[in-house]
Amino acid sequence: MSRTTPAFTIAARRVLVAGGFDEASVSIVDGVIAAIRPFDPDADVVLPDDTVLLPGLVDSHVHLDEPGRTEWEGFATGTAAAAAGGVTTLFDMPLNSVPVTTTPEALAAKRAAAAGKLAVDVGYWGGAVPENLGSLADLAAAGVVGFKCFLSPSGIDQFGHLDADQLEAALAEIATFDGVLIVHAEDPAHLHGDGALGVHYADFLATRPPMSEQAAIEQVIEASRRTGGRAHIVHVSDGGALDAVRAAKADGVRLTVETCPHYLTLAAEDVPDGAGAFKCCPPIRDRANQDLLWVGVLDGTIDAIVSDHSPSTRELKEQGGGDFGLAWGGIAGLQTGLAAIWTAAAGRGIPLERVLPLMTEGPARIAGQPGLGEIAVGAPAHLAVFAPDRAWTVDAAELEYRNKLSPWHGQTLTGRVERTYLAGHEVFRLGEGVGVRAGAEILHTLRPTGAER
Ligand code: ZN
Q1: Which residue, among 58, 77, 57, has the nearest Cα to 66 in the 3D structure?
Q2: If we measure between CA atoms, which residue out of 109, 106, 114, 104 comes closest to residue 64?
Q3: pLDDT tens column, 278-330
Q4: Structure pTM?
Q5: Angle at 166 between CA 164 and CA 171, to 5 degrees
Q6: Ligand 1 mean position to 148 CA, how many Å?
């Protein structure tokens, strides 16, 4: 469908521009922000005073699982959930689709599956697995934004994990085209317990101790230091691991890290018995740990807050009668991320403009898309209308996900996405749902740099 829309202007008393809120009118021409002018009460759209105009969110860590596991999510439902959550650009992970995105042919299959279904813009991560090391440039040339790898078993047999030597080889190879390697950092040497564990969350938590993350993150830091390759740690859950990240960044290691709304807003102490919706790897840890993560958010150690939306079926989340060892790991959080984070941030006295860049510009940079995630002249007109004081109670049944499960189910959150614009198209309106499928693909061409960095 055409991305061209009639020119129009949106005015609001609070527009997030250049890091702060100010009243403004945003003019949109051909899907792009053409001008930002003083507030105009006669604009085509004048937002109510209890709403703010935000850049559309960017989520660099989403598992849509299509093709192959569309019973888990899929492009149609997943991108609808994104639009309803104010997310206008997401980047799909190379697993748990079938095939996994580790070859150009698999990427082509994924792109074919996405065609016509996208409510928001979508880019793709490729996978770095033992079988495709040495040929990553082919997949890069096909359009992935970077590469994902695991240092521990991924849970998917087709997506093997890298050992220490392979990690270093992948970083060195990806550095030749200045790409990024994003790493699931848990060290299998420090993971225990396979099979049934019972319904108590603490027994699952004990199987994936902080040391498993700390050891793996140290390994990534050293490999990045030696190769000069750009590395990104996905979903850090252990706040104790951040000191090593701080030190590495200060040393000039090319490292970024992300955490997720579930680690910043949910705590191990509160996980009910048998509640598989809360299981993910690495795990949600305790409240004292969560405080350390918030320190990392505020001091710049953490670069991005992204959903790691990784749903599966209710049967897989609840198998074994709520046994935490048997439940599939993965949190469904794409639609509720902004509200959950804002509720927690406000409770800590942190203003919206402090955390929002970690959900917009931060993930955009990690995915190699600088300039996305901002309200600025020349930027695509991706916008979210957010009512920061509006309270609502999460009812999983009302979420756009294919599987109506959420660890925030029943929680009252503050802040609601009321409207979402993608390239000037209104793609979501609260009460009316998701409309046009105006999403486009983001293909990224990584090219050889011709020089070792
Ligand atoms: Zn993930």
Answers
A1: 77
A2: 114
A3: 999 999 999 999 999 999 999 999 999 999 999 999 999 999 899 999 999 99
A4: 0.97
A5: 100
A6: 9
